[in-house]
Fold each of these.
Amino acid sequence: MISFKNVNKWYGDLHVLNDIDLEIAPGEVVVVCGPSGSGKSTLIRCINRLEPIQKGELVVDNMAVHDKKINMTKIRADIGFVFQSFNLYPHMTALQNTTIAPLKVRKMKNEEAEKLGREVLTRVGLEDRIDHYPAQLSGGQQQRVAIARGLCMRPKIMLFDEPTSALDPEMIGEVLDVMKTLAREGMTMMVVTHEMGFAREVANRVVFMDEGKIVEVAPPNDFFTNPQTERGKYFLSSILSH
Amino acid sequence: MLEAFNFRVILEYMPLYGKCFLATLWLSALSLFGAILVGIIACAMRLSQSRFLSRAAGVYIESIRSTPLLAQLYFFYFGLPTLGIMLPEWVTGVLALTLNSGAYYAEIIRSGIQAIHFGQIEAGIASGLSYFQRMRHIILPQALGMTIRPMLGQAIVLVKDSSLLSLISIMELTRAGQLLTSERFMPTEGFLTTAAFYLIIYYMLKAFSNWSEKRLIFQEAY
């Protein structure tokens, strides 16, 4: 579904992605973790070309994302992206936030889009918040609207960039529950997160990154109980010690 | 003072003032509409990835903002005919006002756009919305909503600037005052009446701004 081959990216002199090789199968849930600045956000932002790559091949759903000539609109419509800071449109209600892309990109009819929006917002547990504006919602509710916005496009892949890092602790659970349900329903997901409980429960593999390289790829239980690299051991001890 | 103030002559000139009031109204309205349109386009060019478009818009905005409107007006009025472009006076006047205020609107709208968190634009890109769809549905509604007050300020400036059109012999409110002054030598009556009509336009604009602020700025959204 997603295939990185020898992918490289630089910001000036900084080598943010260094020879990335990674294959993600349909229906797989992959958690990406690593210290700050290790390139994990950049890695998933390359998949829908929010960031272009400079070298290597990146193929998503049989489309060559590394090819500068390719039109990204269709691929992007098929990939849901959830940001750390939610990035909802503040002048639109929850329902309008979820229906804008189906209406404008998929050219769906009004009633059809509204029905879909209500259905998806209900799925993320926000049936009583449909006509609220983002500023009237809690962080956890806003992030669930953002997930619903992605799901309304009936995506083939969902990408999450630290979806719970900006949330108060008591709201993390409600967002993770929605994500776990999605994972169990067979959605292909790539999630940058440090939520180890989530990773253990639903991830097929954990990708550990450091300094732009993939250091370790392992099933979550193996990685958390017995990391194979010194860097992995050190990272786990530093996040688990508090 | 009231004895010195000749109301009879003002009444006598009222039909002229009425006509000139309407002229100022529609000349300003046309220029305002054009200026906001020019402002949106110039602003989009200024913020575009293309260096050429951005520079071109920059030159336009800078040169308008750094020169007096009167000089620009004379440039169009006297300069264009020497280039073989003959336009009716009112077209020249509207063109000058449009291009002048357009540069200021470009900067006002830019401030509104740049106040929008870039993450929203990224979210639009990520869901497959095109540049124009993002502009139309995400960026402009917020940028225009947030800048209603400075936009109103510029609209008032534009109405007042339209008085300069009297200098290229367009019949509008200031010209009416000049006529009363020169025909009857009554500058106080002439220009106070002119001022009163500008005040009416000001209150009309203010009422519109208050109404549109309630409609366009989604108070519950912020």
Note: The CA atoms of residues 161 and 192 of chain A lie 5 Å apart.
Amino acid sequence: MSDATTTPKSFQEIILRLQNYWAAQGCAVLQPYDMEVGAGTFHPATTLRSLGTKPWAAAYVQPSRRPTDGRYGENPNRLQHYYQYQVIIKPSPANLQELYLGSLAAIGIDLGLHDIRFVEDDWESPTLGAWGLGWEVWCDGMEVSQFTYFQQVGGHDCKPVSGELTYGLERLAMYVMGVDHVMDMPFNDPQSPIALTYGDIFRQTEEEYSRHNFDGATTEMLFQHFKDAEAECQRLLAFDADDPKSGKRIIMAHPAYDQTIKASHLFNLLDARGVISVTERQAYIGRVRALAKLCADAFRQTEAGADQ
Amino acid sequence: MPDLLIELFSEEIPARMQGKAREDLRKLVTDGLVEAGLTYASAGAFSTPRRLVLSVEGLTAESRPVREERKGPSTSAPAQAVEGFLRSTGLTLDQLERRADKKGETFYAVVEKPGRQAAEIVAEVLEGVIRNFPWPKSMRWGSGSLRWVRPLQSIICLLSDETGAHVVPMSVDGIEAGNVTEGHRFMGIGRFVVSGFDDYVVKLKRAKVVLDTAEREAAIWQGAQNLAFAAGMEVVADPGLLTEVAGLVEWPVPLMGRIADAFLGLPPEVLQTSMKEHQKFFSVRNPKTGRIEGFVTVANIEAADGGEVILKGNQKVLAARLSDAKFFWENDLRVAKAGMGEWVEGLKAVTFHNKLGSQADRIDRIAALAREIAPLVGADADDAERAARLAKLDLRSAMVGEFPELQGVMGRYYALEAGEKASVADAARDHWRPKGESDSVPVEPVSVAVALADKIDTLTGFWAIDEKPTGSKDPFALRRAALGVVRLVPSNRTVKLVPILQTALTSHVAYEIRYRTTAEAMRRIIEREFENLSEAFHNQYGQGWERLFSDVYPVLREDMWQSELGQGLFDKLLARQLDWIADVASDLLSFFHDRLKVYLRDQGVRHDIIDACLAMPGNDDLTLLVKRAAALSETLKTEDGANLLQGFKRANNILSQAEAKDGVEYSFGADVKFAETEEERALFAALDKAEAAISPAMQAEDFGTAMAAMAALRGPIDAFFTAVQVNSDNEIIRRNRLNLLHRIRAVCSGVADLTRIEG
């Protein structure tokens, strides 16, 4: 199936080829994180695991939500719910660019026929207190991936440095398969007995969520939930590390980080509802960042995040 | 004489950083070599997206031995002094030389440093340069601690002479220097060994890499022009883009495509900006239609299909981008046709500065100010106000949201669409100008009025909240704004700045009083300082008094300020600020004067000449100042002018000394009947003549004539001083002569303050 010389027939075939490719490169193929996130970077497999000295290599698909990007399923490229493919390797291997180019070949991009370029793009996530240097990768003028060497996450220097690759799956797949509207893209093999397009699966949900994000979501509730998540995150991290019940030292870094993810998504929803002013915006981003930093601090105290 | 080749091979270096990196590499390495005692014949630096290269020719093979000699203390000096000398030189007593001199015997330290091999020096210098390279932003990677712009993968450091090429032994953070590199990422020939710079350049080309940026630029430009020419079109020149694109490719392959018909109706500026910013495309114009109809993209690969797939892909991306632009444009046009009310509302929500209100507040002020300035610059007041109200609305348009650099350009299109007249629409585009020293200045009166109002509102605003530029800090670009004002004032108009500055400052003070004073502070002011008003407020509002100055004040204050009572309070509060306003206006005026000085100095007018003119009344009329300075500058260049200046200074000195000595001011009553000599009488006559000529000329601001008349006094003044002794024994005659000198001073001072002129 992963015959690199053929063009993939479906969206899922591209995902499967990427999974196989990165599995063959030795990455642990993880499953999506089970919470609403804005990008694959939010998965604790990236944010938290990029901290500390323990080597790490993981790849996964992450459904991502950007409430403000909802277009009721009408825009050919824009979705409020889409998929990212994420690869994170620590320390970044010396041949990461070659590995990445190999993944493009694996999904049917002929490197002798296309113009692949690494164009400066510094990445920063104000909500995660994270930044890195790298490129956006262009294929024939189209941005197909984000390539970043993490320098800081949650306010901590990344030592060693993780290399992060993020593929915007829909856009990449549309380009590879020559599809003009995302909703027309075959999701499974068009020759299947029950052939499904992206639109068959997501057109209705794009409509529903667009309405929800822009008009439906109750803002008072969202504001309250934001406060709750913030308080819960801080409360969980305030616990004494020694757990009397198990007799173990247990810092609740991940549960606290879940609350950070929640706060971040709630902020995105409030932003889509248009109830956060320009000046408040910065303040909310700062509050989420403060949580992310607390979680990073806590994770660094755990076994997985400590320096060896 | 060996040659040196250095290649720092890395992952893709941002295009914008390459130019400075080349220069830094060249300078830092050659400076280091020279400092260590080597010399070289020439050095050149090169870059591609993946490598930074330095070639040094004619390097000396080793540094010269250095002999350093230092004189120490006398051999009979106390032990402490000798020990100190030993410490500072690092020698022992038996290594010191003793030399006899006149005073006895003195210690000398003689240190001989042997010459060092070039390889040793190069290794040391290069390591230092790599570790401390001044990248604007650098990073770590993998497990290492070295910083470079992107991961550094390999180093060539090669010295070659007649005996062959030798790798300089060195390593940085585990990267060993060698003589191996690789070519193009996709069209290369694997890794290969090089033996020197010439070999390197040839092999790179074989491996599909053009090393020299200038050569890549030339190839791109030539290729693009050829493609366009073949299609009967022309490429729009863009040197900045050319340099950037040359920094993105190792093997440039220009490809030309057409813009789909559906997008040809977009304004050319939109097409150009979108293609350049998002896609790094050159714009291609059809000379027959004058429109932008095509593009040139530059690939980094000779594709097997001649670039067909690449072009198709790029075309697709462009179509998506231009669809966005078209969507913005059509949406914006809809708002524009409806009168742009949506944007007017929108700007109320956009903060300009938290102490200076919203963009809407700002526009109100600029509109009022433009109205006042309009007649002074020959513009219709209604047009100027209308233009000021429209000029910034495009800030809310979708297109400017996407491409901020199109602000103004879009405003003009939208204003025309809204049915405004051309002069008003042009002001939307031109009121931002001059954007810098090299930008031209609008001359259309409506544009000038709005441009002046805009800049003066900004300047007075930041002066009012005391955010003036200091030293190198000028975050709001106020120096540029002031220079803009200096350049905008039309040379054929009289524009007195002080009243305009005061009006503008008053608007800011009004905003402060009305909207930045808290309820509590306002209540306190009324109660403590305006007893009568306090009573009136209580009478009018009764119970509501407490409510007015509570947390609903922001809602109620609008009505309050509109009421008669509010008006009265406002007038009183404003009146208290009048002195402050006058002070700030005068402070700001001197800021304009400083800008004017710099501006005129660049045009070759001496600073003392400007000072002589600044000292004259009416110095808030910049046009007048410039004219006066130019005329004075010309006059002083003539022989008469230069000599007159000496005569004036002599007269002024004698007069000042006499005044200081006698404790009186000699100012009136010089009478020709006390004149003793011909020369004295001639001077009286000349002064009469000059006064008669100067007064009306000054009235008419004809400085040339006035100064020529002044300069004509040179002969009579010189003759007077040659023939006459001012300090005569006869007190009446002396006083008469001093009074005569005063007339010289008075006549000249009416033209400019010549005491400020140097020399």
Note: Chain B touches chain A through 41 residues (CB under 8 Å).
